[in-house]
Amino acid sequence: FQIEKPYFSFDATNRFTVLGDVRHRGLEASVAGAVGDRLTVLGGAVLMAPRVTGEARALGRVGSRPVGVAATLLRLDTEYRTAFDGLSLTGSVIYTGPRPASARPYAELGGRQLFTEAVTTLDLGARYRFRLDGHPVSARLVLANVFDSRSWKIVAANSYQLNDSRRLAINILADY
After folding, report:
1. CA–CA separation, 82 vs 49, rounded Å?
2. Backbone angles phi, psi at 86, to 5 degrees
3. Residue 56: what are its φ and ψ, rounded to 5°?
4. What is the 3-state secondary structure (H, E, C) of 52-90?
């Protein structure tokens, strides 16, 4: 794939404006299938070379990478249907590569942009499907970010928020 669009970020006066163009060029692929009678696996990857071009880039006012965009995203999802009718166990491993956290390069970093670290998270869950008064119901329990991996959400250039830590979610869905 290749996507090109204007690149918006903060300039030297902290004004949010167009600073050039950004190009996302890369490969997105996924594979899915059954492994035996009970296990389903879905894996996906996005591998790309996001690049900033334009006058601000040529003048060294912004770095070569767009803010908040990882070059590597990997995900593996599994579902295991147990022998107990309607009960399945789920698991997900998600890897997000390093992401630029600043638009401009810093002399203190050898002329490089500030980056977040890569992060890998694990989610585990269970789903039980059943019928209630003739209507399909699904109850789901998910423990997300099992190992409580800490990472930053890039809100904008040089503006960060802590991503969610370990959390437990319970959902009940019914079709009526």
Report:
1. 41
2. 95, -10
3. -60, -35
4. EECHHHHCCCCCCCCCCCCCEEEEEEEEEECCCCCEEEE
User: Which residues neighbour 159 within 8 Å (Cβ) at sequence distance 6 or greater?
Assistant: none
Do residues 129 and 136 touch, judged by C-beta distance below 8 A?
yes
- The predicted-structure confidence for 128-149, as pLDDT tens digits, reads as follows 999 999 999 999 999 999 999 9
For 8-67, how does the pLDDT look when each residue is reduced to its tens digit (9 = 90+)?
A: 988 778 888 899 999 999 999 999 999 999 999 999 999 999 999 999 899 988 999 999
Locate all alpha helices (DSSP H) within the chain, ordered by sequence: 55-58
Query: What are the distances in angstroms from CA 132 to CA 83, 92, 128, 166, 176?
Result: 21, 29, 12, 31, 10
Report yes or no: 120 and 101 within 8 Å, Cβ to Cβ.
no
User: What is the strand order of the sheet 16-35 is part of?
Assistant: 2-10, 16-35, 39-53, 72-81, 87-96, 119-132, 135-144, 167-174
d(CA 89, CA 77): 11
Q: What is the pTM of this model?
A: 0.89
How many CB atoms within 10 Å of residue 33? 9
3-state secondary structure of 114: coil
